[in-house]
Amino acid sequence: MFSIAGAQLDLYDYRLMGWDAKRKPVAHAVANASGEFQFDQLKEGHYSLHIKGGVADDWFDVEVTNKVSPTDYINIDVSPTTPDCKGGHQFEIKAVKK
Predict the structure, then answer these.
(1) pTM of the model
(2) Which 8-state DSSP code applies to residue 93?
(3) Which residues contact 63 (CB under 8 A, 6 or more apart)?
């Protein structure tokens, strides 16, 4: 894996069918030099995350919930997947130490 400095991250309300070009993101972030970013507080729910920058231009369906413990960070691997679906498109979560 590698970091994508300056990646643009847009979070949209999830829609099952179709795309609305007028749809506006509910949150936006830009990755820093280390590839780190942060969204402000988000409501629980389903979202579509668009990551664009470097070699990345992909979408992820994500759910924000309070059913899991808070995290220090979530690593998003946006590297291309291989035909056998190994590598890439993974979320790695580091839980907060108590």
Answers:
(1) 0.72
(2) E
(3) 45, 46, 47
